[in-house]
Amino acid sequence: MTAPDARAKQRIAFVCVQNAGRSQMATAFAERERARRGANDQIDVITGGTDPASRVHEVVVEAMRERDIDLSDRTSREVTPEELQSVDLVLTMGCSASDVCPATWNGETRDWALTDPHGQSLETVRGIRDEIERNVTALFEELLD
User: Fold this and answer.
1) What span, in angstroms and rounded, lies between the C-alpha atoms of 105 and 23?
2) 111 forms bridges with which residues in the sheet?
């Protein structure tokens, strides 16, 4: 993906089925990375699920707390094809997002093929978290450099 024009705002979306683990972690890291790089005027971040859970998984909240990111007030939400029509890049987390038809997406789609943290141990979720953090950092290097 080419670097955005300095005047054009990129919209990225982190999409998963439940929006209760991987996509929530990716969104939180993206928001932090965007702030660190002073890119609030260059990148919009959205997240959602095709079949949202009732809340973010507790083990995910705990793992992210270790990175000084509080997800305890976040809620899972549904993402719609209409919402994704204006997105430049859709990142799926390794779960099927087939309920949201990619034909309606105007931008690029990538799948990060991450293990689902639901029901996993904290140690396993830490590994997933760290992989997501690396992926987000690399994504921002690509988008902003």
Assistant:
1) 18
2) 92
pLDDT single digits (tens) 117-137 = 999 999 999 999 999 999 999
- Residue ranges per structural domain of the chain: 10-133
Rounded CA separation 25/76 (Å): 12
pLDDT (tens digit per residue) in 41-91: 999 999 999 889 999 999 999 999 999 999 999 999 999 888 888 899 999
Check if the beta carbon of residue 117 is closer than 8 Å to that of residue 7.
no
Average pLDDT, the chain: 89
Q: Is 145 exposed, middle or buried (0-12, 13-18, 19+ CB in 10 A)?
A: exposed
Instruction: Please write the tens of the pLDDT for every residue from 16-43.
Output: 989 999 999 999 999 999 999 999 999 9
**b/e string for 70-107 if b means 16 or more Cβ within 10 A?**
ebeebebeebeeebbeebbbbbbbebebeebeeeebeb
CATH (residue range 10-133): 3.40.50.2300
Tokens of 93: 């987390």
